[in-house]
Structure formats: structure tokens, C-alpha cells
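> forwarded from #structure-qc
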């Protein structure tokens, strides 16, 4: 009997979110035979410190960078919703759009950003500096959680999908990316280089990539510090089925 294809869908607010938090794990799953997809909710058009860049230019650049990173991670495809950066609403439209992609890709595992994470009194990179989680990250995480359960499962949620040939789908596991909690730790030692390369593809986001690389490596080491391997990513894992 032919085995069912294993599929993972990662939903981020901005281009680079999933590369920062989950690309080591996703690249590893791709190497193990999974089909992987990203869904990016906003156009990322505010993520620039350079005064001369226009909204349109930055949207185009960030999409090109995400495509490049996606090739490095080994993604099958990337879906873009193009909501305006910093204005992502957690509303029925966004939920319908995420449910639609879930019903197209039919993943067993969905990864997104932790909607419970609003702020921290210290950041993972600097103990002395607090961290406020971006509004779009919270909105993407919350809308995705609702899309996974119960919306994509229920036939009567967004019945227009069925008319377009998209059937309801039950997601087995929902994973939240985690900045600080060490709950479900994944060994990414074999794919840390891919993660760094994927991040480097987001050129418009970094003035000093060497520093970013150092921080990402030290964070990945920190997640692995009680493990037998060198580098890790961490998730909060909900097994739903
Ligand atoms: Zn982001």
C-alpha cells in the first residue's frame, strides 16, 4: 500500500520568521522525505531601516529573498497573503485564507508562532534587554491556531472551499515556535548550515549578518545544552490526533 505523503506547513507573519525559528527542523524533515510549505501572511514591507526604500520595492525584495531561502530549505512551495506589514488582523478573512492553504496542502504538522507569547523581561540574545513580540507574530499564531482547530476540520467552516474542490482536513499536530521554552527540542546539527544560509538570503534585513549568525548559533546551542547533540530548535508541541 502506498504510504500517505507526509506534509508540513509553516505559517509565519513575515518573510524570514520561519527561517529564524524553524528552518533547521523543516530542512531536516525535507531530508527525511517530507513535503514542506511556507505560508507568509504579510508583505514584510515595513521591515527596513533604510529611508529610501519604498513599500513596493521592499515587498518585491523580501519575496525574492524568501524564495531564495525556500530553495535552500527545500520547500515545495510558498504561499503569500500579502497583508500589510504591522497591520495583520486576526479576523475571519485571515482565518479563511489559512484554512484554504491547509485544505490545499493537507499537512499532518502545522508550525506557527506562539500566540501566547506577548513579551519577555529579557531577550534570548541579551539578558538585560526586554523583548516585545511583534503584533503580526501574535496575530498569525492565533489565526493559525483557530484555522487548525476547529475551522479546517469542519465542513461548514468556509463552505465555499468545498465548491472549489477543497475538502475539510484534520491536522494531527500543531507546533509553536519557541524563543525561550525548551519543551520539544529538535536536533538540527545536520541542518544548522542550511538554516544559516537560508537566513543569509534575507539580505535586506541585516546590516551585520556576522553578528546575527553568532546569535543564532548561540541560541541553537543553548537549546541543545542538556542534549547529546550540538544545535537545536525548540517548539511547544500539541498532539491533536
Ligand atoms: Zn517577523
Amino acid at each position: 500500500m502506498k504510504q500517505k505523503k507526509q506534509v508540513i506547513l509553516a505559517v509565519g507573519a513575515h518573510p524570514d520568521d520561519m527561517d529564524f525559528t524553524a528552518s533547521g527542523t523543516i530542512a531536516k524533515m525535507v531530508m527525511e522525505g517530507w513535503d514542506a510549505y511556507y505560508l507568509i501572511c504579510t508583505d514584510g514591507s515595513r521591515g527596513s531601516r533604510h529611508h529610501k526604500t519604498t513599500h513596493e520595492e521592499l515587498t518585491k525584495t523580501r519575496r525574492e529573498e524568501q524564495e531564495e531561502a525556500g530553495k535552500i530549505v527545500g520547500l515545495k512551495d510558498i504561499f503569500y497573503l500579502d497583508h500589510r506589514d504591522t497591520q495583520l488582523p486576526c479576523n475571519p478573512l485571515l482565518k479563511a485564507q489559512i484554512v484554504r492553504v491547509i485544505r490545499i496542502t493537507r499537512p499532518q504538522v502545522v508550525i506557527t508562532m506562539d500566540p501566547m507569547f506577548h513579551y519577555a523581561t529579557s531577550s534570548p540574545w541579551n539578558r538585560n534587554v526586554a523583548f516585545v513580540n511583534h503584533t503580526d507574530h501574535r496575530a498569525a499564531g492565533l489565526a493559525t491556531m483557530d484555522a487548525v482547530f476547529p475551522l479546517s476540520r469542519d465542513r461548514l467552516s468556509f463552505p465555499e472551499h468545498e465548491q472549489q474542490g477543497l475538502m475539510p482536513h484534520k491536522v494531527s499536530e500543531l507546533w509553536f515556535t519557541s524563543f525561550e521554552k525548551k519543551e520539544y527540542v529538535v536536533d538540527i546539527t545536520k541542518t544548522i548550515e542550511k538554516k544559516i544560509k537560508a537566513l543569509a538570503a534575507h539580505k535586506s534585513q541585516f546590516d551585520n549578518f556576522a553578528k546575527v549568525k553568532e546569535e543564532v548559533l548561540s541560541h541553537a546551542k543553548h537549546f541543545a545544552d542538556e542534549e547529546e547533540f550540538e544545535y537545536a530548535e525548540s517548539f511547544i508541541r500539541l498532539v491533536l490526533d
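QC bot note: The pocket of zinc ion is lined by residues 13-14, 17, 134, 137 (CB under 6 Å). The chain has a mean pLDDT of 94.
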